[in-house]
Amino acid sequence: MSREPDLHPIEASHLHARRERVFIVFAGLFLGSLTMLNLLGITRFIDLSFEVFGMKIPMPLAVGVLPYPITFLCTDFISEFYGRKRANFVVLVGVGLNAWVVFILWLGSVLPPPVDEAGTFFQIKTLTLGAVFASMIAYLAAQFCDVYVFHFWKRLTKGRHLWLRNNGSTLVSQLVDTTAVILITHYWAGALPIDGDQPISPQLLTFITSGYVFKLAVALVDTVPFYLGSAFLARYLQIDPSAEHDRGEDARNELPKK
Prior knowledge:
Strand content: under 5%
Largest sheet: 2 strands, antiparallel
Helix content: 55-70%
């Protein structure tokens, strides 16, 4: 028989502690993935090109994109069990965290080095700062879009059709994110590996399409873990995600008055 861990004085009950710890796991995974993708950013592009009926489909992908889909899965879980306000709060914390990363990069670049050298740090700084501005604008637009569309479908379907709000919110927000980050990274930071001798628009379209196709594929695959995870967490956290539709969204977080 499993034993519940001892409660901290601020934890109202074992159930309350369990819910908060699960929230911290999702928030931590979200923030860690977000920081990693901005640090890795466009430091390297990988080639996932493939052939269909003998025709080569180009698919260059920035390595920073790899952990990105997990951020949307985390906000979907948070939205499902903790509500829109908490999901938006985590998104805003992510903005602050990236501002902190930028500050440390700036501080590290202005402090005197032991020798006069450019070094790997400055290469990372140049690539990271070039991508962070673009990714943060895209990130804000996409994450708030994800949370909004998720709850739009949740209200519209009265809490039913989990697959619809999971995929619908992610697919729309990923399109917003991919388009914004590619265009801003190119036109503001000039950090994409663009061939200046070739037309720019087809190359940008290739970057947008390849990034979106990757995110689309991951979003469709993560429907299964989202279903299984939601079913498990509904029992483990003793939360009925559809209950808010019986009483109205405003009553969801209503606390008893003393």
